[in-house]
Amino acid sequence: MKKSLFIEGGGLCLELEYAEEPHLKLLSIKFRKGVNGKTGTNPRIKEFAAKLSSFLSGNDPRFGKDDFALLNLENFREFGRKVLFTLFNEVPRGKVVSYKQLAELSGFPKAVRAVASVMAKNPFPLVIPCHRVIKSDGSLGNYGPGKKLKEHFLGQEKVKI
Questions:
Q1: What confidence tens digit (pLDDT) does each residue in 102-123 have?
Q2: Is CATH 1.10.10.10 correct for 78-156?
Q3: Catalytic residue list contains 130
């Protein structure tokens, strides 16, 4: 059974969708407008939500491997999981990489378009920070929740584009 937890911070609202059975897994993080009031009860999800709220407020909550393990990446093949883990693990707050650089870091130097496709399907923006991936020419490229939000998050991280 799916459950939701809504969090707000920095003028934004997120919905964390999760399942507790057969084991706790975060299913998605979605941007919402003006939603509040629903809360989940799982303490691990609440702890995770507190980190996201901290991020939305401009802080660096340091998501770790335990947080990554909570993410449901079953819809991704090994390639996609490797790319997402590489971004999560190798690109710190305040840094950006191009799609090409991310492909190289992931061990797939010729798979630039495939890497961009994985970024477009990332169900966990902010935790797996696809806003930190830009085009090789230095321009922003796309971002599912919108370019203005990408600019906002990069600005919070003091990245100059």
A1: 999 999 999 999 999 999 999 9
A2: yes
A3: yes
